[in-house]
Automatic annotation (TrEMBL):
Domain N-acetyltransferase: 1-145
Predominant localisation class: cytoplasm
Protein name in UniProt: [Ribosomal protein bS18]-alanine N-acetyltransferase
Record function comment: Acetylates the N-terminal alanine of ribosomal protein bS18.
EC number from the UniProt entry: 2.3.1.266
Reaction catalyzed: N-terminal L-alanyl-[ribosomal protein bS18] + acetyl-CoA = N-terminal N(alpha)-acetyl-L-alanyl-[ribosomal protein bS18] + CoA + H(+)
Pfam families assigned to the protein according to its UniProt record, in alphabetical order: Acetyltransf_1
Localization terms from the record: Cytoplasm
Length: 145
């Protein structure tokens, strides 16, 4: 398994994964904005194939996870944990004190993943996300490192 920064050239493959795993996927424009804004954008490859990626943003002594996704056929094999561990490793290198993220309240898989890695539920952001019917709350989670 290898980690490396992704570039515009990788976005076709990344968009395929994004559209398959998110009900409200990021657009190519969202990824391009992140690359242009110098967010940390990296992918995880196994046997030369992109199987996941993360976009994180460092602000002062905080790290914010903006996107973290694993290709559908590769889920539930431990790769999400590997990707999250890499996020934590990079945050430590950057001397971040806390990692934050927002997650849909209905996204049990992601909440379980963060919980397993020591993240705590910090607050609820009411009606934070678009949803099929109306809006959905976000859970704000954080990890002190
Ligand atoms: C969330 C996500 C990254 C997890 O990736 P993954 O590769 O399936 O995760 P892993 O196999 O490493 O599992 C790690 C832990 O996550 C939790 N988990 C993963 N899938 C789960 C599921 N379907 N139901 C409940 N818990 C789950 C478990 O705690 C698991 O640990 P365990 O195997 O010891 O039970 C993946 O489901 C995904 O890409 N989802 C779509 C995108 C998304 O929701 N991103 C997060 C937005 S905040």
């Amino acid at each position: 398994m290898q980690f490396s920064d992704f570039k515009e050239i990788d976005l076709s493959a990344i968009e395929l994964i994004e559209n398959e795993v998110h009900a409200y996927p990021w657009t190519r424009g969202n990824f391009l904005d992140s690359i242009k804004s110098s967010h940390t954008c990296f992918m995880m490859k196994a046997n030369e194939e992109i199987i996941g990626y993360a976009v994180i943003m460092f602000v002062l002594d905080e790290c914010h996870i903006l996107n973290i996704s694993i290709k559908k056929s590769m889920q539930k094999k431990g790769y999400g944990s590997d990707l999250l561990k890499e996020v934590i490793r990079r945050s430590e290198l950057a001397h971040s004190k806390t990692i934050y993220l927002e997650v849909r309240m209905s996204n049990h898989a992601a909440i379980q993943l963060y919980d397993k890695h020591g993240f705590n539920e910090m607050s609820i952001r009411k009606d934070y996300y678009r949803a099929k019917e109306g809006r959905e709350d976000a859970v704000l989670m954080g990890l002190e490192i």
